[in-house]
């Protein structure tokens, strides 16, 4: 009986790129931390090294990461002031250099955003 590999040792292929896709609502002009559950803008998050965000709100949103900016302590991670990345409606962008989606927050138009958490854009060459 064949077993499923849990490492690259002895295997010709092992997919370590575990991807997850989410959708969550944004409230107008409310800083919202990305998470894997919709509980007041907070949640468990999802481990990843990058997140692709799709703006489907119908308006402009700003994405913040890594606690940049002037928001008060205790606000969602990624609070960012002038260090945000502006996404127009129907635009997408990949944010890299994070360890969890809950390090990223969105602010602006009300509506839904979709995002995909993954460890890298393509499988590594071996």
Task: Characterise this structure.
There is one protein chain. The protein has 126 residues and is mainly β. The protein has one domain: Jelly Rolls (Sandwich), CATH 2.60.120.770. It has no helices and eight strands. Strands 1-8-3-6 form a four-stranded antiparallel β-sheet, with no helix packed on it. The protein has a four-stranded antiparallel β-sheet with strand order 2-7-4-5, with no helix packed on it.
Number of discrete helical segments: 0
Radius of gyration computed on alpha carbons: 16 Å
CATH class: Mainly Beta
Number of strands: 8
Helix content: under 10%
Topology:
Layout: E1 20-26, E2 32-33, E3 50-56, E4 61-65, E5 85-87, E6 92-96, E7 104-108, E8 111-118
Antiparallel strand pairs: 1-8, 2-7, 3-6, 3-8, 4-5, 4-7
């Amino acid at each position: 009986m064949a077993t499923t590999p849990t490492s690259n040792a002895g295997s010709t292929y092992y997919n370590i790129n575990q991807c997850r896709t989410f959708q969550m609502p944004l409230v107008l002009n409310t800083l919202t931390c990305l998470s894997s559950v919709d509980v007041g803008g907070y949640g468990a998050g999802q481990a990843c090294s990058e997140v692709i965000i799709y703006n489907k709100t119908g308006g402009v949103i700003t994405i913040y990461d890594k606690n940049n900016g002037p928001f008060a302590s205790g606000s969602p991670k990624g609070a960012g002031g002038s260090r945000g990345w502006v996404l127009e409606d129907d635009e997408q962008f990949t944010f890299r250099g994070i360890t969890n989606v809950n390090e990223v927050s969105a602010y602006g138009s009300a509506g839904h955003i979709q995002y995909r958490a993954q460890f890298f854009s393509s499988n590594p060459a071996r």
